[in-house]
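Record pair follows.
FIRST:
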Amino acid sequence: MADHYEVLGVARDASADEIKKAYRKLARELHPDVNPAEDAQERFKLVTHAYEVLSDEDQRRNYDMGGQGGFNGFPGGNFGFGDIFDTFFGGGGGRGPRSRAERGQDALLRVDLTLREVTFGVQKSIEIDTAVICKTCNGTTCQPGTSPKTCDICRGAGQVQREVRSLLGNIVTSQPCSVCKGFGQVIPDPCVDCRGQGRVRARRNLDLNIPAGVDDGLRLQLSGQGEAGYAGGPNGDIYIEVQVRTDEVFGRDGDDLTCTVEVPLHDAVLGRHTQIETFDGPVDINLEPGVQTGETITVKGKGVGHLRGTGRGDLLVTVQVMTPHKLDSKQKELFKKLAELRSADTVTLRKHKTGFFGKDKRR
């Protein structure tokens, strides 16, 4: 009788994992479903028997001490039948043919937008490189005028069953058909243009309707706009990630736009009606007499469009009073006269506000 270690090609001090790995490799090569050679079945039996003995601690110990470890009597213990059955026979049971069609992959695209585009929303058209349905076969994977044929080996079942002798008698095994790969059909004449995939690589235009109110980092899902699926399978999705460029003049606070207006000192003192240029064009604002730096003027409805719902946010205009630093002699004289008239005004420390319980709000 052949030495079990030599049959599996392992050393006598091989670990249980090494023995199991060697057995699985040989069993895959010698299994009757994949190896039609005349001696494959006998070698498969020897390999299986060697593994049954060496995978059981008691049987291996008995074998190493000179015991036969043979077929007779099935000396007690588990000889790994569950592993054999699950690994190579697929747990039995035919599951029927599987679909050749597969869903296409999703894609992530990044789109740069200006703050103006985010404010009103924008339509864009971008060119993408992706998989599209093959126009020649229309996703069928077959040459025009031909069609898939039922597999002669599995007769459309996608599975083949064979009877194999084992230590427990005859066992019916079930595996995906090696001819049709489990699909139950074969493609005698694959489409030449797509090489039997039902799809080809191409560049196409993607129309985007970006709504107002999107924010930096937001992702929009375009269902069914991704790659075409294999063999006519459904398209994947496209995810659009928004990136908003910084504007030179305007900022954003939620759905409100923000900006700062520099006001000459005399306009801050006397007040003034003026205009500022916005995304909506010129907008009137009213500077009240005595307006201070840091005060905010709210222009209703001139902010960012609401992403959900209707309407828009506001435009928040912050005042920055500009103190003149280059004066001619006449202007200096006027300021001196003003200082004399306002001689009661002094430089003082401003008291900070406290909360209801006297705590410093700045902390």
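SECOND:
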Amino acid sequence: MEGEAPHIIHGLEGVYFTESKICKVDGTLGKLYYRGYPIGALAANSSFEEVCYLLLNGALPTKKQLRAFESHMKAERKLPRHIVKTIAEMTGKAHPTDILRTAVSSLPTYDPEAYEKSQDANLRKSVRLISKMASITATIGRFMCGGKYVYPKRKLSHSANFLYMLTGKAPEEKQAKLLDTMMILHAEHSTNASTFATLVTGSTLADLYAAITSGIAALKGPLHGGADEAALLMLRAIGKPENTEAYVEHALEDKQRIMGFGHRIYKTYDPRARIIKADLEALQSSASEEIRDLTAIALRVEKLMIDKLGQSRGIWPNIDFFAGPIYTEMGIHPDLFTPLFAVSRVPGWCSHMLEYWQNNRLLRPLELYTGPLDLEYVPISKRR
């Protein structure tokens, strides 16, 4: 009706703005699908490289297609000298996520196809971003520890090469596989905040590098990509397993947020969290004392929160809750968690951007203005 105040949907919650064939998140049943494949099947049987191919191309590859795709990824790992220099100059002065964002925004300088608009060119740029973002993030972590730049190894898988560039040592197969699983679980999740930010920028017909830079920026906040770091800080603040119940009770009484719990979409157990929890529990026989304590704390927090808020309010563990201890066991510094999230999520960002461009429309929502109108302008000489 004309003159009627519009209905405001805060946070755009429950608003559909496009169609997609990439990802299905069933928050009621706690299910997640990439291109129709259940996340559990992909985590158990696939590789990150294969999942990247699936997301970008819409189907699982043949052996020949996967070999070619892996070869393309490996060929794009090496970083330009200027990018390495930029990382070195910023390390210790900026958050690693800011370093990653700055480095990615510089990549068009070295890509002759940076501003090409064709689907094929954007697919090639997607592979470059997937490969180079991993190298950038590993180099950030390497420089944080005082090490020197490590050149990538073609014979290693994507996850194994990341750990090699981070530590200077080829990882054990079990460790590389665990990271590979973590990257698969983080690779895609529909139009979350960072994916939406990517699409907003790309909808202006800005280039893919600009769109992905926006995604990285949106990922930085503790309500999104920074949540796993915040959850680990909480577990460490608890200190010992026997402190858990008192800490959680006090936090809930003070209406503090328990990091790693609750999700905008999931109203039941996050299916990715179930997989990570099982992987974390499997580590316990060989884990350090710190990780065993963190795991014990996490399991007690989980039980208490499910008993108190799971069934009654739909607040369950999400993927961030168990991620921190796993990354810590790998020797990955908490400041690197969010950049590593971006490394894992970039195939999802690129897939959504390429899909959206097939039927692009500028994303331009409305806002309801509630301020004054027709104010009289007073010259500065007469203002008091």
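COMMENT: Residues 162 and 326 are 16 Å apart (CA to CA).
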